[in-house]
Amino acid sequence: MGLRTIIKLYFRLIILIIFSTFLAYDYYYSTNMTNYLINYKLFNVVSIIHILWLFLVLEMIVLIIPKFNRYSYSGKHLLKHCLPETNYNQEKLDQFTNQNKKRALNSAIFWILLNAPFALLFFLGYLHPRFFYWLFFLYYFFDTVCINIFCIFHVYIVRNKCCNECRIYNWSNFMYCTPLLFMPNFWNYSLIFLSIIILIQWEVSVHFHPERFSSISNRTLQCKHCPHKCRYNTNKHTLIQWINKIGQSLYNKFKHAKS
């Protein structure tokens, strides 16, 4: 992971830890410290939640405006990130596209099923709205984890080779904003609105330009032309090496003790 990614990962982790601590304190001592944290004004001018809101808005606008979308994994729906492959097999591309559609649908179903219990408990009156802020920060943190360390969609559902070819990469904004649906206000719904624009922009491109989403027809998505460090696979191999190293160490200790 590069410095930018590490900063992003720890930034989101710190936010999650701080909010979780305040939420746990509220739960055990029946206080309202979470709202105090959210509405606390720095220098008596602007609240923390508004600063975070602005940061999230800027993150999303970068994805929406083609000029600022610099990376192929989040911008492969754009023409500027497509290097057309010559003489590719159209039948293979069609098969790949249809398979991707099914896996994207499976991802949507999984996400709905994951969040449905929270929605049910909320409407039955068992969950406080503050819980959904915590869930939002949890999803926001794991968005970075999925990109750089481990992604359940990559391994079990979508199963594209990497983030650069991921069919649902730009779904992530709407996914981590899902909990905000249960807290209707301008700030939350404006983030949801932007995430829906990103989602629509992505899906429209999938429909009209499926060739941009496959390494069969887009050379940018091929390993030999990929401009990015292979983050997921590098981390995966590093993890495997680390596990093997521990296993070998334990085996040697066991063998030495036995002898």
Would you kindly provide a written description of the structure presented here, covering whatever features stand out?
The protein has helices at 3-29, 33-39, 48-64, 72-75, 90-123, 129-148, 152-157, 172-177, 186-208, 231-258; strands spanning 41-42, 46-47. It has a two-stranded antiparallel sheet. It folds into 2 domains: 3-226, no CATH class; 229-259. The radius of gyration is 21 Å and the shape is globular. The protein starts with a helix and ends with a helix. It contains 10 helices and 2 strands; from the N terminus they run ααββαααααααα. The model has no long low-confidence stretch (mean pLDDT 88). It is mostly helical. Strand 1 (41-42) and strand 2 form a beta hairpin.
Helix content: 55-70%
- Describe the sheet with the most strands: 2 strands, antiparallel
N-end to C-end Cα span: 42 Å
Question: What is the string of helix and strand elements?
Answer: HHEEHHHHHHHH
Shape: globular
Judged by helices, strands and strand pairing, the structural class is: mainly alpha
Number of self-contained structural domains: 2
Report the uncertain regions: none
Rounded mean pLDDT score: 88
